[in-house]
């Protein structure tokens, strides 16, 4: 049974949007005022003050966070979640490929679940609600403001099932809000530093920090496979695309990935994900079969990133012998 609908402003519209999102396959939905995102700028500033070398990264994000400037017609922000923990994840992909990429609905646009979610777009259109979902920044913070969960020490957004969540954001031209109350979620204990201690490269150096340029997930995607100065490539271990270390180690995230539904289309692409195959297969196969699994974190014109990651993996394997 689903929870009782949360408090809302413009109740009929807010609850109608919520119901449409649930029927389209989303697990939860909240709606916030654009004013609720104003403190996010200070959130970014604190990150930059704590890790000064990250300033260029966060300043770039900051340029795109003013929703009213980007979408002058926008009145509210809708945040939807998808729990991808319902899928099982092949064991030999774990500690190599980040689950949030390969289990994302957008990684297989021919799957029924992805097609179902497009019905939410049609519902918005049919009700003459103007919307846009392109590159909405700060969705973890937005979900926090909507009361849908909390942000933990490792910087990931959690609901009662953990952090294995996709977040989708939609700006809309209607004034309404819908807030949940997740204050019952236990915060991270003050004496727990498992995620910090187990970050392989020290990107997460203290609670709620992040040096993105040292993060394995960034380096293996947007960072084009380049190992940053001051980091030994052996610390990347077996990671080829992304990194789940700070999520896997979290006590609030215990999960059996051997159970669940089969993710559509993932089994078919497994042979191409072997490091040796990434080095020898054609550009066309990588562009058509592997690149889409990175959900825009690696572009089709940068397939060399995949090969750099594979080469580093094989070097690390040889050095372990």
Overview of this protein structure:
The protein has 321 residues and is α+β, with helices and mostly antiparallel strands. Helix content is 34%, strand content 11%. The chain has a 4-stranded antiparallel β-sheet with strand order 2-3-7-4, with helices on both faces. Strands 1-8 form a two-stranded antiparallel ribbon. α2 (40-50) packs antiparallel against α3.
Low-confidence stretches: none
Mean pLDDT: 94
Over the alpha carbons, how many angstroms does the gyration radius reach? 20 Å
State the shape.
globular
Strand content: 5-15%
Work out the number of β strands.
Answer: 8
Determine the structural class based on helices, strands and strand pairing: alpha+beta
Count of runs of 4 or more consecutive helical residues: 14
Main-sheet strand order equals 2-3-7-4
Secondary-structure element pattern, one letter each: EHEHHHEHHEHEEEEHHHHHHH
N-end to C-end Cα span: 52 Å
| Helix content bin | 25-40%
Largest sheet: 4 strands, antiparallel
